[in-house]
Amino acid sequence: MSKCSKLIGIVASIVLVAGMAFADVTSDIATAKVLYVNKDYAEAQAAFEKVIKDYPTATVNILANAQSFVGYSLRSQGKHVEAQVAFEKVIKDYPTASVGILANAQRCAGYSLRSQGKHAEATEAYVKAVILYVRVPNVVSKTLIDTFSLINPALMTTADYATALQSIIKATPATEANAEFLGRIKSEIEKMK
């Protein structure tokens, strides 16, 4: 057998094993999502945690998504402190995940904080989520406005709120899709004058 034939055989084996591993992680995620959809949240949580443990070399988006579902499962069980930790783990452990996954995790961390009665911290989380969301290509203005509406200016000093609004404006691309959202932010600034 020539060196070339051996090399082709090795490469084919690697591709086959990688394909099988991808099929396994995809199958395990599908199983975990069925548990979640069927509202078997404790089992779904365990299944998503197993995906993270069993497939540490999966893509960052697969792992970040699985970690997000750990958070959703915990939140659905009423475990808001643990859910907050799970969502913050998405941001901390998978910083290169898609900005949409990160923005959603930040928003969900805010929901978890709010559910714990930590309204000021939730407000800060929502500001961070808005700033992340504006970087998501094709994010609908409604998502931005809905997330922005969660920010409670009464829980911030006027200066902090003004700074948050300016940060959001600075981070938001001035596109036609963002026009309604930017108008809402500028209106808030005008109210402060």
Q: How would you sum up this structure, described in words?
A:
This protein is mainly α and 193 residues long. The chain has a single domain (10-192), classed as Tetratricopeptide repeat domain (Serine Threonine Protein Phosphatase 5, Tetratricopeptide repeat). The chain is 77% helix and 0% strand. It contains nine helices and no strands. It has helices at 3-37, 41-54, 60-76, 80-93, 99-115, 119-133, 141-148, 158-171, 179-192. The longest helix has 35 residues, at 3-37. It is elongated and about 55 Å long. Residues 7-22 have low confidence and may be disordered.
What fraction strand? under 5%
Q: What is the CATH superfamily classification?
A: Tetratricopeptide repeat domain
Assembly form of the protein: single chain
CATH fold label: Serine Threonine Protein Phosphatase 5, Tetratricopeptide repeat
Counting H and I runs of at least 4 residues, what is the number of helices? 9
Taking the alpha carbons of the first and last residues, their distance comes to: 81 Å
Order of helices and strands: HHHHHHHHH
Q: Tell me the name of the CATH class.
A: Mainly Alpha
Please give the largest β-sheet. none
Arithmetic mean pLDDT:
82
Shape: elongated
Cα-based radius of gyration, to the nearest Å: 21 Å
Secondary structure class reads mainly alpha
What's the number of structural domains?
Answer: 1
Helix content: over 70%
CATH architecture: Alpha Horseshoe
Please count the beta strands (DSSP E, at least 2 residues each): 0
Low-confidence blocks of residues: 7-22
